[in-house]
Every structure is written in structure tokens, then in C-alpha cells.
């Protein structure tokens, strides 16, 4: 066997490096460096939960050996984080989680200069089951009874839920419209998260509420809250309540899709690489564990399919918020 002299090897390496130029980490197989995921909401909130679920699934099932970090930039329905995120143009290692209805509501309400169409769609991943609840002491035992009370005394029927313009608020607004209740008669209190919402409901300060199953399940199972309906077409395991579809109310049911976006300026090949990474994560056993833990439902919409869903939801959100008098 011939063994090359060290000097010859060194010369060959030097010649090669001069030929190909300096190595650019971004040109290696994706991901070529660590990944940062922006959650444009508070720690412990829905977007933060989604970002950390992706972080966990990527790491626990060895989808990538690159480190993943989560950054929280809350405020203005996600639009503060969104405005910062677009500065990462062209970098596929910067990702952002969101859900369509909440972020679009923030964009419309705050007249954001940045629109989701400027970003690169990676994938819709899940929908979250919403639950309409009342305190355990409420006289209303069905959604029909709650709606009857709502029609009789709109201002006296105080609702609590997530951010203004978000899916909870949109659902209450659509219920009001369906029942001939004027938008200016709504008594809706927006909260910053599940803890504040639960306090208002359990104390009886709020007459009714809308939140995700993940936020409300423990109090429903403990008997502190009564579930009257769940969003979507199917019932939810462990929660004894009909779906809005069963109740003939599909027209008020908007299912927000949670997913991942990349910054503007990614070409098709880079977009495909990021989509492939998320698809590999989704195919591992780690991702279904996160879906089950958070009461999510799978809603895989890669690339252009996610872009189409965002465009559809943008039209719906804008229409409802205009009817509620909440557009600039």
C-alpha cells in the first residue's frame, strides 16, 4: 500500500482549498447551522407551546443534530415579533410559529405593515379544538340555553377568551351575528392566557368562555367548568359535549391552523429543504406524542397548500372583524 507523505497531503489540501474558496456553512446540507424558532407570544402561551413542541420532537427523535432555540417576542397579536422576523430575509435557519386566525386577526386589527404573504410558507401542522364553557354554577346546561340567555341580555352575558380578533373572539362574534346580536352589544374580555381566563370563569366573573381544550380540560374534568360544545366536526375524547357541526352551527366554526413560516426571500430549493425537515419530524413517533399531549389535530398543509389556507383565512378574518367594527 502506498502512503502519501504528510507534505504531499498538506499541499493537496491547500491546493483544494484555494480552488473551492472558503467554506460557507449555509451551503452545506440543511440545516447547516443551529435553528432559531420565534414564538411571537408570551412564554407558556399557545405559540410558545408549539415552538417548544417542535424543538422537543426535532431533538428527541434525532431529526437533526443541530441545536434549536426558542425566542419569545410577545405583543400586538404577534405583529411585534412578525416585524422583527422579516429582517431575517433569506435565512432558512430562522423559523416562526403561528396560527392563522390569531396572527391574521392581529395583523388586521393593528394595521400591520407586514403581511403573512411576504413570508415563506413552510407547513400547516395542526388545528386546536376549541371548547365553549360556562362555570359549573351556571344555570345554562346546553349551548342552546346559553344562546337564549345571550339573546335576552347580550351585555349581561360576559364572555372571556383569547386575544381580540383571535379565534375565540371571532367565534363569539359569529355566534352573535348568527343570533341577530349587534356587534356593539358584545361583552367580550380578552385575556393574555389560560390562567387569567380560568380565574374569571371559575370565579363567576365571566358568564361564558371560549378556549382550547388544552387550556380548559383540567378544569372541565375537575367539574369546575361545564363544556357546552366543541369546535369542529367530531366530539373530543374525555369531554362530554357535542360538536358545533352536530348542533347545526358549522357556519360559525373557523378552525385556525397552527404552523411554521420562514422569512421572505427563500428560493424554492431552500423552502423545500425546510419543508422536508418538518415532514421528517412529523413522521417520527415524537411528533404524534406532542399532538396528543396538546389536544391538537393533525392538519398537514405543506408549502403552497398552507399559503392557500392563509389566504382563505385572511378573507374570513377581515370580513368578521369589519362586521365587529374592529378594523382601522
Could you please describe the fold and organization of this structure?
The protein has 328 residues and is an alpha/beta fold. It folds into two domains: 25-127 and 257-305, D-Maltodextrin-Binding Protein, domain 2 (3-Layer(aba) Sandwich); 130-252, Periplasmic binding protein-like II (D-Maltodextrin-Binding Protein, domain 2). It has helices at residues 6-20, 46-60, 79-85, 100-109, 143-152, 167-178, 194-202, 213-221, 268-282, 286-293, 304-323; strands spanning 35-39, 68-72, 94-99, 120-128, 130-135, 159-161, 188-190, 208-212, 225-230, 257-262, 296-302. A six-stranded mixed β-sheet has the order 2-1-3-10-4-11, sandwiched between helices. Strands 7-6-8-5-9 form a five-stranded mixed β-sheet, with helices on both faces. Strand 6 (159-161), helix 6 (167-178) and strand 7 (188-190) form a beta-alpha-beta unit. Helix 4 packs across helix 11. The longest helix is centred in the last third of the chain and has 20 residues, at 304-323. Mean pLDDT is 89; it is low at 1-25.
In helices, the fraction of residues equals 25-40%
The overall number of domains is: 2
CATH topology of the largest domain: D-Maltodextrin-Binding Protein, domain 2
Count every helix, treating DSSP H or I runs of 4 or more residues as helices. 11
For the largest sheet, list the strands in their spatial order: 2-1-3-10-4-11
